Every structure is written in C-alpha cells, then in structure tokens.
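ESCALATION

Customer reports they have been waiting on this structure for their group meeting. Please prioritize. Original submission:
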Amino acid sequence: MTMSTEQKSEPGLRKEISQLGFGAIALNGTIGAGIFALPAYAIGRAGLFSPWIYVFCGLLIMAIVLVFARVSSYFSVTGGPVTYTTEAFGPFVGFQAGWLLTLSRAAAFAANSHLMVTYAGWFWEPLTDGAWHTVAVLLICTLLTLINVIGIRQGLMAVFALTVLKLLPLLLLVFLGISQTNPEIFTSATIPPLDSLGETTLVLFYVFVGFETAVVPAGEAKNARRDIPLALVRTILAITVFYFLIQVVSVSVAPEMSDSKTPLADIALILMGSAGAAILTLGAVFSISGNLTSAMLSAPRMVYAMSHLGSLPKWFGVVHPKFHTPANSILFYGVFAALLALSGGFVWLAAMSTVVRLLVYVTCVATLPVLHRKLGEYEGQFTLWGGMTIPVVALILSVGLLTQAKLESWLVTGGFVLFGSVLYLVSGRLGKKTG
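Update from on-call: job pushed to the front of the queue and completed.
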C-alpha cells in the first residue's frame, strides 16, 4: 500500500463509523424523493411489468457497486472518488472528480432543501412559498451544518434517526398493501418494447444512484477496508428488494394511477384514509431530510480531501481541535449550498448532475486495473468473481448511459471542467507561495 492509503495521514479525525453507519449513509444517499414519485411513471410506461424493471436496474447498478466495493477496499482515508482517481490518474483528474461532484451535490442539496420544505407545506401552508419557505430552507442548511461541525457522531445519529423515520411509513405501506398483490405480475406481465424499456430503465436507474456517498468519509471509519465494501453491496441489495415490493404494491393497489404526482400518498389514502396520506407525506419529508443529512456528512469531506491532496488551499483541510471534524470544509459547503438555495442558481446546475455522476462512475471503474497493478492485493481483501468481467460490464453500462445525455448537459459540464482547471492552477500557485 502507498502512503496515500493509510489512516495515519489524517490526524485529528475520530474513527466513529461502523459498517451499519456506512450502510445508513449509503441508504440515505440513495433513497430520496424519487421513490415517492416514480412508481406512477413506471406504471404508465410498463404496467404490471414495472416491478421487474426495478430488479433490472438493481442488477445494473450492482455491477458498478461491486467495482466501488473492490476499489474502496484499497483505502482507509477520506475522499472516495477524489482519492481513487488521484491515486490512479494523478492530482488533476482527482481534483476534477471532487470539484464536479461537490458542485452537483451542493446544487442537489439546495434543490432538495426547497423540495423538502414544499412537502412540509402540506402540514402548514405558509411553508409552500414566500418568506417562511426561505427561512425554513436556510434553517435546514444552518442546522445540518452545525450538527456536522459539532461531531461525526452527531451527524451519524441524525442519519440513523432519519433512516428509521423515512423507512417506517414505506414499510407500513408495503405491509398493508402486499396482501393485494396482483398474481399476474409473476405470471403474465408483458415486457414493453425494447426502446420503451430502455428509456424507462434510464429514468428508474437514477433512483439507485447516490450510494457513493458512503465511500467518502473512509478516514473516520473503524475499519474502512472491510466495512465499506460490505455496506455498499448489502445496502443496494436491500434497496432493490424494497423498491420491488413498493412497486408491486403500487401497481396492484392502483394500476390506473400513471398520471399521479403523489402516487404513494394516493395509495396510502386508499389503504389507510387521509391519515395514511399524511403519514406518507411526512415520510417524504423525512426521506429528503435523510438524503440532505447524508449529503452534508459526506460531500464536505471531498473538499477536505482535495485540500490534503494539495489541490485546494490548506484552510479547507483544517480539523477542529475540539470536535475533530473537517469544520472549515463543512462550513464552506453549508454556506455554498445556502447561497445556491437563495439564488435559485442550482436549477441550471441540474443539467450537468447526471453527466457528472456517470463520468465519476466511469473514472472510478477505470481506476481498478491501475490500482490493482500499483497496490497489489492483501489477505482478506474484498474480491470480485470473474476477474475484470464485472468492471468491463460496469464500464459498458456507464458509457452506454452517458450516450443518452443531452448536448446541453455536456456543454454545461464542459464549462465547469474548464472553470475547475483554472481553479486548480490558481490553487496550485497559491499552495507553492504558502508552502
């Protein structure tokens, strides 16, 4: 192992995260608002076959997850994709991965903050728009920033609590609705035409992304090389089964709801009345809250890692002497996300988010043969069956999905790559002057 893979390069951080913690981070990074809206879309596109598309998407994402599990088993330092790509391809590629991911994560954080407050407006109408809406969004940004500055344990406690609160309403929905399962889902569901199936798969695939949130805070793990790979694989397996069951209930209870904007709340209304709709709406609030909490725990640590790798000023890599957290990076990310939320600038950043995620997947998959050659293997390391077969499948899948991206997304992403290149050069010169 090279020095960059060792925990001793990160003094001051506390090793608090267990395998269960990484699973909760991955789950919250993956399950957000999408599952509360996409069941209706899936029904409209594939009818009774729709649950099986979730299974297919789960298998596709598992190919990528298995590669991430293998790559993450080499490292026990903070950074995730930043660290992997820097080690394999050098600091410039690592910086671009971290820069683009941080931008897209901050934009998503800002957008989801607005969405969460809008959902909460179901319970108190002033939250849907205007001054109270803005105050609530800023309060979310401030509260999550402070929680994560105070300590990794406090951030994890928030993640655990919101994991339970987001899953309970969905589990209740499955429990009450599974008895109404339409047997034709398993016996005579018709596969949609291939072009329609591909388009639907592309949309539903993005309900599975976000797992990579868990690999970033490896430097605060109790045993990163063992726990992160197992947490990734087990979490995605569990999420796939969960999504499948939710879609089974959805298409069985309300097969004609393809135009619904709130499908799970509508199903809860059928199964439990108005109280059920309120419970599912509250579940959506908690689900997005968990997604935000996971993002606030993970994303600032990419900024911290870029500082430690020398591609951002040292200020971003400062660890708080009392709380043992990368406080400056957390504060920077919280302020940045709040400014995006206030300005509404995150909307045009959304055009690049899909391309960025897939580009990072492609780059991280490509690191595996390089890391294998540079770092070798160690006893007990997470292994992949079939050698490079799974990485090749993951690479083909990711590149194939990238070809579906619109020109606008590529242009916006390219613009940020150029801007990031300038920032990288400026940061490098500043580092030499202060070094």
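Sent to customer with the following note: The radius of gyration is 21 Å.
Escalation resolved.
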